[in-house]
Amino acid sequence: MIAIVDYGMGNVASVSTAFQRLGYDVILTDQQEELKKASHIVLPGVGSFQAAVDEITDRGLRDILIELATEKPFLGICLGMQLLFSTGYEGGETTGLNLIPGKVKKMNTDFLLPHIGWNALNINHAFPSYQRFQGDHVYFVHSYAVETDLRYVVATTDYDKDVTAIVKKGNVTGIQFHPEKSGDIGMDILKTFLQEDSHDNYSSN
Amino acid sequence: MIVKRIIPCLDVKEGKVVKGTNFVSLRELGDPVEMAANYSKEGADELIFLDISATNEGRNTMVDIVKNTARNVFVPFTVGGGVRTIDDVTQLLKAGADKVGMNSAAVANPNLIKEASLRFGSQCVVVAIDAKKFPDGKWHVMTHGGSKDTGMDAIEWAKTAEELGAGELLLTSVDTDGVKDGFDLPLTKAIVETVRIPVIASGGSGSPDHFAEVFAETDVSAALAASIFHENTYSIKEVKETCAKKGVDVREIGLF
User: Fold this and answer.
1) Please, which pLDDT band fits residue A202 given cuts at 50, 70 and 90?
2) Which of A5, B26, B27, B164 ranks highest by number of CB atoms within 10 Å?
3) Cβ atoms within 10 A of the Cβ of B134, count?
4) Does the structure show a pLDDT above 50 at B256?
5) Facing residue for B2 by CB, picked from A159, A181, A184
6) Among residues A74, A188, A174, which one has the least CA distance to residue A133?
7) At A68, phi and psi to the nearest 5?
8) Counting beta carbons within 10 angstroms of the beta carbon of residue B57, is it exposed (0 to 12), middle (13 to 18) or buried (19 or more)?
9) Which residues are CB-neighbours of B112 under 8 A, at least 6 positions away?
10) A117: chain B residues, CB-CB within 8 Å
C-alpha cells in the first residue's frame, strides 16, 4: 500500500491514478496510523512552500514524516520535493522537512517563469538506475528550484542554467517535474523509484 | 532545452467533441476522453478542452469528462469555455484539470484572474485572448466567440492579464482562424514581445509547415490546432517531424 499524504495542497488524483496504474494499492490520507502501515510514502503538492509547511504542521504530520523518511521509501513530487529540503524562500524564509540539506530559491534566470513545459533530463552517472532516462523529456511547472550538494542530484534539466530535476539521499527521492503528467516516461520513472527502493526494511506492519 | 509544445484543442458540446467553425453546422466527432487519450498517445504535449455547451447539463457533463480525463490521460490538460466565477475554477481544478482557461469572463471581471492565481497559483491560470486587427492599426480584444468587439487593445490587455497573475496566454487570431493559411505571425510576435509569460498561438494552421513557421518566426512557446488533427489531415507525429526537420526542438516520442 502506497500512502499519498493528503495535506490539502493541490490535486492528487493524477498521482494516485499513476500508482494504481502501476498495480499498487493507494491510500490518500493524513492519518498517522495509515502512514505507518504503508510500504511507501508519497508527498505531492502544488502551491507555496510556506503554506505547505503550515498545513503539514497544523495537521501534526511534521515529525511523523521525518521519522518515516528514515524507515521507508519516501518520494516528494514537485512542491513535495522542495519540502524535503532545509529551507524555502517562497512566502518568506521557512524551515522545510530538512531530510536533504539544501535551499529552495526562486530561479535566477532571464528565461520565462514559471518554467512550464517539457524539458530534457541530464542524468548524473552516479545513479545508474536512472541512466536510461538520459535525454528524455518530462513536464515541468515551477518557479522555485532546489540548490543542493551535487552528490544528491540524480538529474538536472537545462533552463538557462542547470536546474535540479531529481534528487536522492538514502530512502528519500525527490522529483521536481510531474511524473504523473509526463506520459510513459513519467510512469517509468515512478516505477524506477518503486523498484529501486523495494528493500525489505519497512515490512513491519 | 525546453521544447515547443504542440496542443490539439477539443471543442466539447453537451459531452461530445464537435467540429464546425460556425455553430449552425456542428458535427459530432467522438468521445472527449477517448480522443484525448489517443492524442496523448500520438505525442500531444498537452490538451485543451473548450466547453461550448449551452446547457447546465452540458456543463455538468464537462466536469465528469475532466474527472475521467485525469484518470486516463497522463499529459497536462487545460479546460476553458464558460468559466465565469472562482467557483467554476475551483470545480474544474478539483475535478483534475491542470489549468483553467478564461476568456470573456476575465474581460468582464479582470479580478477573476487575480483571485484564481492567488488561490491556486499562476501556473494554472490561462487567459485566452481572441484578437482581431482593426482599421485603427490595433488588434482589438474580441469576445463571444470572436464576434463582439470590446474596443480594448489586445497588447494592453495581454500586459494587464500578466500583471494580474495569468501564467500563460492562449492567443487566437480571429483574422486567421479557420483560414488554414498559417498562424497570425505579426499578432503573435507583438504579444510574445510584450509579456514575460508563455504564449500559445492559435488560429490558422493548415499544415505542419505552419507550425514550423510560427516557431521559427516568433518566440511563441506552443501552438494549438483543432481541425487539422480532427480531420486526420495531419497527425501530431507529422507536425513534430516537420518541426524537427526544420530545426525546431520538439518532444520526440516513439519512432521518428
Assistant:
1) very low
2) A5
3) 12
4) no
5) A159
6) A188
7) -65, -30
8) exposed
9) B84, B85, B86, B89, B102, B105, B106
10) 2-3, 5, 45, 198, 221-222
Pairwise CB contact (< 8 Å): B121 & A46: yes
Pick the residue with more confidence: B5 or B57? Answer: B5
Residues of A within 8 A of B70 (CB-CB) are 11, 13-14, 17
According to the model, what pLDDT value does residue B227 have?
87
Q: How confident is the model at residue A197 (pLDDT cuts 50, 70, 90)?
A: low
Q: What is the pLDDT of residues A76-93, one digit of tens each?
A: 999 999 999 999 998 889
What span, in angstroms and rounded, lies between the C-alpha atoms of B171 and B180? Answer: 16
Q: Are A61 and A7 in contact (CB under 8 A)?
A: yes
Flag whether the pTM goes above 0.90: yes
**Cβ-contact A193, A173 below 8 angstroms:** yes
**pLDDT over 70 at B81, yes or no:** yes
Q: Could you tell me if residue B51 is left (phi over 0), alpha (psi between -120 and 50 degrees) or otherwise beta? A: beta
Rounded to whole angstroms, how far apart are CA atoms A104 and A83?
8
pLDDT band at B21 (very low <50, low <70, confident <90, very high): low
CA dihedral B54, B56, B62, B68 (to 10 degrees): -150
According to DSSP, residue A171 is labeled T
Residues 6 or more apart in contact with residue B234 via CB below 8 angstroms: B207, B208, B228
Interface confidence, given as ipTM, is 0.90
